[in-house]
From TrEMBL:
The modification 4-aspartylphosphate is found at D848. One of its GO terms (molecular function) is ATP binding. Residues 559-776 form the Histidine kinase domain. This is Sensory/regulatory protein RpfC. It holds the Pfam family HATPase_c. It catalyses: ATP + protein L-histidine = ADP + protein N-phospho-L-histidine. At low DSF concentrations, interacts with RpfF. Residues 102-156, 230-282, 358-410, 488-541 form the PAC domain. InterPro entries: CheY-like_superfamily, HATPase_C_sf, HATPase_dom, His_kinase_dom, HisK_dim/P_dom, HisK_dim/P_sf, PAC, PAS. Residues 799-916 form the Response regulatory domain.
Amino acid sequence: MTQRRRSDYMPINSKECERFVSDATLSGDILRRLSTLVQSASHMLVVMAPDRTITWVNRAWEERTGYTLDEVRGHNPGRFLRCPETGPEVGPTLRTAMEAGQRTQIDMLCAAKSGERYWLNIDVQPTYGPDGALDGFVAVHTDITGRKSQEQAALAARNRLQATLSALPDLVLEVDSKGHFTAAHASDPDLLTTAADALIGRTLEEVLPGDIAALGRQIMAEVDAQGLARGHRYRLDTKKGERWFEMSAAPRPPDTPDRETGYILVARDITGLHQAEDRLREANTRYDLAVSGSLMAIWDNDIVHRQLYFSPRFNEIIGGPEGDWYGPTDVFMDMLHPEDRPRIEAATQHHLATDEPYNQDMRIRDMRGGYVHARVRGKAIRDATGKAVRMAGSLIDITAERQAEDQARRLGVRAQIALNAGKLGVWEQDGASGMVSMDATLGELMHRPEIADRLLSPEEAYAFTHPEDLDMVREHLIRLIRGDVDEMHSEHRIVRPDGEAVWILAHVGVAGRDASGKPLRLVGVTQDLTGRKAAELRLQEALEAAEAASAAKSQFLANMSHEIRTPLNGVLGMAQLLELTGLDERQRSYVETIRASGRALQSVIEDVLDISRIEAGKLTLSPGPAHLADVISQAIHAGASDAARKGLEVHTEIDPALDAPVMVDGARLAQVLTNLISNAVKFTHEGHVAIHARALSSGRIRLEVEDTGPGLDHDMQLRIFDRFSQADMSPSRTHGGAGLGLAIARELTELAGGRIGVSSEPGKGALFWVEQPAPAAKKDPASPEPEISGAAPAGPLRRVLVVEDNPVNRSVAAGLLTEAGFQVSEAGSAADALRFLREGGVDAALLDLHMPGMGGDEALRRIRSGEAGPADLPVFILTADVTREARERLKDAGADRFFAKPVDAHALIHALRARLSQDAA
């Protein structure tokens, strides 16, 4: 509806009409022509009285409405124009304006007399008389049906366009030639970076990120050049997060002559498509990786055109060139082993006919002239009618598997032969049911052939186990089933029907476990141990016999040592007593010969005992802090008299780096050096013997004993450290000895983690060397006992009780002590000694270890317990038992000192005086 104000138009008043009529009267011709013009006008004219009733209409109005003037005169026009579809606002609008004497204009949907609907534009203008009073209305009715149809069509088109745009998920943008937004539509406003109404008039660069604005300009240029642009993708951050769009564009023609051309840009949200494409690419990548990284070849057979494709893995399997394999299906069929082809063709046709699973093993000729084994799986692909048009699947190389199966079969045959040859019985137990099956070999071993290949319950199987072993066997099996161990090995007995117990060795393993860890199957191998047990019994008996023989040997050596040392102690002791009497030079020479022979015999005894300990593995070292200078001095002292007698010079050279104490077994190292020095002195008749000591790296030392003797040939050097080996093995040799010294030296050196050797040439002397660990000691060695003068302690004579069952040795000890200035009492047994001690008056006691009845160790324990005199009485043990065990036992029992027979009288008297001097102090 369009309403206009009265002031918008020039009013028609009565005076003007009178003038017009007067002028027309003056000219009747003009009046007639005016009437004709009004009647023939295309516009419809209606003249109304002030009460809005019709007074006159022209012919055009009559023709359009279908009503005549006579029919309408005196009536309101609305009576003949209104229809049900007429807008309800039309009547009130016209009435209000006309009552106010105002001009108004409105569009109205009308109905003709025939019922036809048409649109009128009604322009109503009031008319006034000469006095200015309202004298009626003139209305011009214009038929606008055509225009309204166009407007409605345009509106419908706009509505359809709006509906279409609303239904589209796309962004639709209009841009002018300079890149200004002229319109924008978005079904989802969150996809816009700027609100739609805020876009209008702004440029691409003002609204979009630089790269996307540049893309927009590129698209506009592409439209200018090609008339269309498509498929341009870009990423944009929106309120909905990161989104991907694809933009297309087309030119926008001008809709009005004065409007320039522009561009319509359509941006579609393809985020889902982009993500799907990413997933597809990832899936394809994974597929390619899976296919290329696996041992599987993919195949696709075009059944219609009989063309077959294989992925590159197939060429790898058959040794062909790199890349895909593609060719006629018949070529592949010709590559099949002649024995396999009929079966494969039949299986393929069967699958195509039934769709049953296709899983075939086949042999395929490779490029090397042989055949590979392959496992092929496939599935038919059908068209809409159900016809198979393709068949695709996978192929894997199972050549190694088949070779392993063949190898397993061969091994199985060999294993069965071995089981049969070794009489090894095999049994299995099902993990689910617990039922047990045994083979014929096991049935034969049990003397129960009826159980072979028959299922037995667990109770029946356990019944064959010896009752005393049953709990142990069950415990082993429980631990195996529980998963504590992977295998079980058990030696136990089974019982045969006649009651005979037979030892067997059972090896049991688990053949697979289910998801819960429960064994699927137990497999056991059983071996008859009857022969082995008999051999073990014989071996045990032989071992016991050997141990008894070794013990007897050790006991024999101990007894022999005791039996030899005891009289030797008497011989050497008497020689020492004899030396104390007035002797001439010849007699002293005799005595020295006796003593030298005794020492030689003692050395042989010591060497034999050391070899015995080495053989028994009972010789051990006791490393401790020691000064090498003291060790070397001790070793030189042992051979000093022989060297002096032969006029040999003995000198030493010690590396200053070895001044500090080192960790070694000083006594045993001195023994090694003593043997080397004694050996050098023994074979050297003139010249010298030199001892060198120097430090090596990593806490090791090297000791050398060099002589100017006759030297050694190569063969002698190879066996010089063997037992009972000497440089001169002839019966007429001039040098004594048992040939054990160097052998013992080697054993002691190796026991210390070192090595020993010799360098020599005949006629040029010899150089014996020792290398062994000697790390720096963390503390100094114990200080030696203070020197005590040889004189007896001042004051009254000290009484010493000598307890010895051998009269000779008792007499020797008593004589030596008497000569040294002691008072001596004697006892022939330990019991007599205890009685003597209870009486008092004894300052020290010498106890023999081995005596009839009560031994010296038992007597010592009683003395220390206070049963016989003072518990702290100085007690020295004299014994022929020189083992470490004896020393440690007596030390623990409280002995002050330990002296091995034959006793060194000077050492004994010196120690005794030192001990008594301490008490006196």
